[in-house]
Structures are given as C-alpha cells and as structure tokens.
Amino acid sequence: MSRPNSPLPPGWREVRLAEVCELQGGPSWATLRTGQHDGEGVPLVRPRDISDRRITPDGVGRLPEGAVPVQSSHHRLRPGDVLLARSGAVGRTALVSEQQAGWLFSGHLVRIRPLDDVLPDFLVGHLSRPAVATYIARHTRGSTIQHISLRDLGGIPVALPPLHTQREIGGQLAALDEKVRIHTEIARTTAELRETLGDLLFTGLLGTR
C-alpha cells in the first residue's frame, strides 16, 4: 500500500483510514419491501445500487416511513459520505451526493465519514485504487459470502497529502469519472439505437438509402 523504498513527498503523511474517518456499519433492515420502487418511503442503498463510484438511484429499494425506527438517525447519509461494500461485492465504493442526503444504507455497507483532514473526492479515489483492492482481498473472509471486518477496513493505509493537493487529486479524478459516465451513457444509447435500426432494416421498414 505504501510506496516501497520511496519516501512520501514533503507535507504528506501515512495514516490509517480509521484515524481520519468515522466508520459506521449499516444495520439489518428486515422490513425492507423488496421491489418497492414507487418513490414512497426512505431509500435504502445496497451494494447492488453502487456502480462506478456512484449510487445509481434507479431500482433502489425503500423502507416505509413508519418502519424506520427513530434511532436510525445515525444511519442517515450526508453529502460527502463514502459507502463501501463490506460483504458480497466487497470493496465497491460510492460517494454520496446532495440528492442522497437522508437516505439509509444496508448492513452490507460501511459508511465512511471523512473528518477534517481528508476530502471526500480524494477519499473515494483512494479507496478505488488497485492497491486498496489488493489490501481488501487479502483481508476478506468467508467462502460462500465474502466479508471484511470494520477493524480491517479501518486499517487501510492512506498516504495523505495536504488539503490543497487532495483537492487537486480529487478534482481530476472526479472529472475523469464524469467523462466515463458520459461515454458509458453514449455507448448504452448507441447500442439501443443499433437494436432498433437493425429491426427496421431486417424487416424492410427502413431502406438502406
């Protein structure tokens, strides 16, 4: 995880994730109505709702408002929180946006809340690094359903630069993520167009000229 035989740049320091973030595991929400996606109730994020470091809102399950206990307030998400899958698709990460404030997260996820020393965009970029994936794979347990403990997650090494450098790194990675998202959407739309056009061409409903 650290840079072997190479010192950190001036102003950088090596820390563990738990030193600069607050880690909170999600509870088990037994009352989730699977397939309830009608816009009513409180959204509940699960690992399947995470893709490309984002929460994909389409298909997110919901808890009826009356089924959410009062004490669940400390499991509500805030903008800038980072979610990481601790079981199943272990290591999948997402940054919580303004639109997802107040949502809940499942017991298969860990909420990582950055403290003052670390910026969210930098953190989600760091947790997406191949070196972190290697660390997580090495500490994952279980044969049927894989999982990693909060303690092991808290031990993830972080080479932490000054805030202005974090801001630059996070900004560059966020811009690249947005380009990936746009190109993915273009590819999806083009594939749909190809299917539609193919049907029209093969049935003679559309000429080739």
TrEMBL record:
SUPFAM superfamilies: DNA methylase specificity domain
Keywords per UniProt: DNA-binding, Restriction system
Pfam families: Methylase_S
Top-level taxonomic group: Bacteria
Signal peptide: none
UniProt-listed GO biological process terms: DNA restriction-modification system
Gene Ontology molecular function, alphabetical: DNA binding
Entry-linked Gene3D superfamilies: DNA methylase specificity domains
InterPro entries per UniProt: Restrct_endonuc_typeI_TRD (IPR000055), Restrct_endonuc_typeI_TRD_sf (IPR044946), Type-I_RS_S_subunit (IPR052021)
UniProt key word Repressor: no
TM region(s), chain numbering: none
Residue span(s) of domain Type I restriction modification DNA specificity: 11-186
Renumbered residue ranges of the record's region Disordered: 51-74
Keyword Kinase annotated: no
Family: Belongs to the type-I restriction system S methylase family.
Protein name: Type I restriction enzyme, S subunit/type I restriction enzyme M protein
The species this protein was found in: Streptomyces pini
Lineage: Bacteria, Bacillati, Actinomycetota, Actinomycetes, Kitasatosporales
